[in-house]
């Protein structure tokens, strides 16, 4: 597999992990020092690159070498979708290494989620669609049907379409 548009440079610099996605033919993950995991897939002549996970806000990578250090899959990844990241954080003026558990969305799904702000600095996650199969490049909240409630509209990059998530919450 060969990816252009700057991806070759990306792979050759600061790559910290590369390996197959368990149970999926022709699918590989690339881990970047900055905390991004990229999914590379090849089916026939079609090759895609999509963001699998972005841990950049949690990973400390301001000095080399540090940042994302490694990745391991749970032995039952195909059933539970769990994986583990080893990365560095900056706490109390020191660089520390930590391991965190994460859970991937089901088989290529891209999770659509919104966060409710309680106006006290806390947020509650609300999963809207755990089976979405398009890579979103834009998600907006707007009252599409004029009922006074905000709906979500998601624009798909690869599918070149829009998905409307109508707000079903009672007024």
Tell me the layout of helices and strands:
Blueprint: H1 7-12, E1 15-20, E2 27-32, E3 36-43, E4 46-54, E5 68-73, H2 77-80, E6 82-91, E7 94-103, E8 112-117, E9 123-129, E10 136-142, E11 151-156, E12 162-165
Antiparallel strand pairs: 1-2, 2-3, 3-4, 5-6, 6-7, 8-9, 10-11, 11-12
From the helix content, strand content and strand pairing, which structural class follows?
A: mainly beta
Order of helices and strands: HEEEEEHEEEEEEE
What percentage of amino acids are in beta strands? Answer: over 45%
Could you tell me the radius of gyration in angstroms? 18 Å
Description:
With about 170 residues, the chain is mainly beta. The protein has helices spanning about 5-10, 75-80, and strands at about 15-20, 25-30, 35-45, 45-55, 70-75, 80-90, 95-105, 110-115, 125-130, 135-140, 150-155, 160-165. The protein has two helices and twelve strands. Strand 2 and strand 3 form a beta hairpin. Mean pLDDT is about 80; it is low at about 5-10.
Short description:
The chain has helices spanning 7-12, 77-80; strands at 15-20, 27-32, 36-43, 46-54, 68-73, 82-91, 94-103, 112-117, 123-129, 136-142, 151-156, 162-165.
Feature tags:
single chain, 171 residues, mainly beta, four-stranded antiparallel beta sheet, globular
